[in-house]
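Practice problem: predict the structure.
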Amino acid sequence: MSKMPWRRSRPAERPSASTSASEAAERAHLLDSHPQVVHADIEQMDSETRQMYRDARTAAIETREQEAREKRTREFVVRAPFQLGFVITLGVLAALLFGAMISELTTIIMYVVGALFIALGLDPVVRWLERKGIRRPLGIGIVFGTFMLAVAGIIAIVVPMLSNQIAQLVRSAPSYFIGISSEPWFHDLKDRFKQFVDFDALLKTGHDFVGKPENWAQVVGGVWQAGMGIANGLTAAIIVLILSLYFLASLQAIKRGFYTLVPRSGRAKVMDITEQVTKSVGGYVNGMVILALINAVLGFIMMTIVGVPFAGLVAVGVFFLALIPLVGSLMATVLVAAVALFNSPGAALAAGIYYLIYMQIEAYLLTPRIMNRVVSVPGSLVVIGALAGGTLLGLMGALISIPVTAMVLMIVKQVWVPRQELH
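Answer:
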């Protein structure tokens, strides 16, 4: 009987290292070529940052190929549970201590954030001067010097006007309450709702309040508190300006230092996101200031024509309110209409109609031309971001809510979404 030849079964073929490397390269190409992914513009970087970015892109490809060849799986085994619990407890305590330190340093953090926003807003102008052949130190001097002159000029024009109008407001406030009592619209309002509200008593209370100088001191917190508030505001402004100059002068070095903290294999993606965020924040700050300035100047012209009292003082308030995203223009409309009501209902109506028209022009003409190129955030997320930022950080949180929301959306679209579509 002839014996059948023995044949050994061969194990299943495993992918070779070259196949794994090719799969990793293909996966990296799909991630990089995803339609949501936008890479940083290396032409906008300085030579050191450009070299760091190219090195990081090469390292990312090499790391993916090496991980594909090794394909190691890590097991999680708890060998010392008491030691692990002790380490976790220390971590929680350290986190609580860090949170307490952050709450104590809120004012300094606000200074840093404000200065960083000013620096990012001025940096595009400095880069534009660099492209025109002006060295960066000289460009920073020109831009920051022009910015300081503009701020000093605005202060020199606005502060005397504000002081005069505030003094005039204190002197003439009682007469405004007397004038309201003789207006036909006030009598009509009183006749319609006198069974619900005692308008004469309210008017007398307001007249008695504004007629006493000591009440004005109470409104501002007293003369000493008001003086301390002004001194603190000037000190904060000087600190923010000094920090903004430092950030503007060392912005590229700060970003390179941040990049070095990231592992070399993942540095390219971080640089992509960071360069886009800083560019969009700078454009957003410039755009918001331009829109607020247009709103205040046109509003001042309208208030002067209509006869709104204290037009200069109200225009300054309109400028700062217009910096608040989404609801700023609406708050400015309410402010102007309320002040115009002291003149006449016709002035208040004219101011309201003007701002209704202006808000449409701003929403459909000015904002798309100025803002949509730098940030694009859905309206619902703008509302949520503004509410969250205002609740956490007050006015500063509301101002930075849109760029922070845009940054989160950018990370989700360019990092999370492409990876999910490969699984």
